[in-house]
Specification:
Blueprint lengths: L2 H27 L11 H14 L4 E8 L5 E7 L7 E7 L7 H16 L4 H9 E6 L4 H9 L55 H12 L4 E9 L3 E4 L11 H19 L4 E4 H4 L7 H7 L4 E7 L14 H23 L5 H20 L4
Parallel strand pairs: 3-4, 3-5, 5-8, 6-7
Antiparallel strand pairs: 1-2, 2-4, 6-8
The structure holds 2-acetamido-2-deoxy-beta-D-glucopyranose (3 copies) and zinc ion.
One 2-acetamido-2-deoxy-beta-D-glucopyranose binds next to loops.
């Protein structure tokens, strides 16, 4: 073999080894995470840490409170660029047995990260808005539901109420400072809708309150994810109070339900809690609307009761896919309205006018 051919072969082998090395590195860096399985709290925490490492400068873990059992409540901030922006809030897992909810928050994060560099609309939205996403708010409850099968349907926090130690837990979604203690709650600690010793008695509700209050002028949209029932709920839970922009909320909600239906044909019902579910008070959605966040919605994901809170894992993917389109529809509306961007329909009409005008101008000399 001539010297030069041997040289070329050596170079080829080296190049081959080099690219193998790169492939190896890539594989190391890729999250090997199954989004269509339910995950333990430890797995979700590990996933958050992994994302922060892989998307440095874009994903940040932000601790913003403590649970009763002293877990650190954290959210993922997704932010491109450093200037101050408007923001979207999403929380999952305020009710611990609703396992599809944390699964959805994780899928939502993945979709944003997978698309913001290639999807023009997502890129534009990320240039104007940050996302604050809490995958599991009621961490103590969530850990408890995983502990053994008898605890699977635990809903509340894990703090002792004020009726002795026979019954633990407060319904965190009845504990916010929004018409607290008026309707749809119980003063009995053993109840599933026990609203706590007083408003904001629970550290988890305090954490959301102080974080969101600190960003009340940035957060335009507050989405809180539950299951089940296939509903998009609007403020307020109190039947005698109406949100000033209820008509707009209704039409944004209906558009989201249509976007959901287009994915797998599932029907979601839109309305205020008292109209389509039941009256309640002290919910985070109502509180967020009361402090002036204009667009606040509760999603109740699949199903309609066949499996209820124990939605089988083979439904995680379709549920996430459709709910993603619903959330994206709302966020797009909020973004376009906030930043005065004409929506697709009016852009089309404007384009048609431009074409007609151009035709007229160019054909004018012929007349
Ligand atoms: C949480 O931490 C505080 C301070 O260290 C401690 O006093 C308290 O007992 C802890 N609570 C639980 C439930 O472990
Ligand atoms: C499950 O957890 C409950 C509550 O902590 C406990 O009372 C029960 O003994 C546990 N069951 C098993 C099988 O570990
Ligand atoms: C709503 O108003 C009606 C009529 O005034 C009253 O009867 C009802 O008790 C009110 N509901 C609540 C939950 O306050
Ligand atoms: Zn719920």
């Amino acid at each position: 073999m001539s010297q030069s051919i041997r040289g070329i072969l050596v170079l080829l082998v080296l190049a081959g080894l080099g690219s193998l090395g790169r492939v190896g590195k890539c594989a190391e860096h890729r999250v090997n995470y199954d989004y269509f399985k339910y995950h333990t709290m430890a797995e979700i925490t590990g996933w958050m840490e992994q994302l922060e490492k892989e998307h440095q400068g874009v994903v940040t873990i932000v601790p913003y409170g403590q649970t009763y059992e002293n877990r650190s409540i954290t959210l993922l901030k997704i932010s491109v660029g450093s200037e101050k922006k408007k923001a979207i809030w999403m929380d999952c897992g305020i009710h611990s047995r609703e396992w599809i909810s944390p699964a959805f928050c994780q899928y939502f994060v993945k979709q944003i990260l997978d698309t913001y560099q290639t999807d023009e609309k997502m890129k534009q939205m990320l240039s104007n808005m940050d996302f604050y996403i809490t995958p599991v708010l009621n961490m103590d409850g969530y850990v408890y539901t995983w502990q053994n099968i008898t605890n699977r349907l635990w809903r509340k926090s894990r703090s002792p109420g004020n009726c002795g130690d026979s019954c633990m837990g407060t319904d965190l979604n009845r504990n916010f400072d929004a018409n607290w203690g008026t309707v749809g709650v119980s003063r009995n600690c053993c109840s599933e809708v026990y609203n706590g010793a007083k408003e904001l008695s629970e550290t988890e509700a305090q954490a959301v309150t102080s974080f969101v209050l600190g960003k009340r002028n940035e957060i335009m949209c507050f989405l809180t994810i539950h299951s089940y029932g296939q509903l998009i709920l609007l403020p307020y839970g109190h039947p005698n109070v109406s949100a000033p922009n209820i008509d707009e909320l209704m039409s944004v909600g209906v558009a989201a339900a249509e976007a959901i239906k287009n994915v797998h044909g599932m029907s979601y019902t839109v309305g205020t809690s008292p109209n389509v579910l039941y009256p309640n008070s002290g919910s985070s959605r109502d509180w967020a609307r009361l402090i002036g966040i204009p667009y606040t919605f509760t999603f109740e994901l699949r199903d309609k009761g066949e499996h209820g809170f124990k939605l089988p894992e083979d439904q995680i993917q379709p549920t996430c896919e459709e709910a993603y389109e619903g959330a994206r529809s709302i966020i797009t509306y909020v973004h376009d309205k906030t930043f005065n961007i004409p929506n697709a329909a009016s852009t089309l009409i404007a384009t048609i006018w431009m074409v007609l005008l151009t035709l007229c101008l160019t054909s004018a000399p012929l007349l």
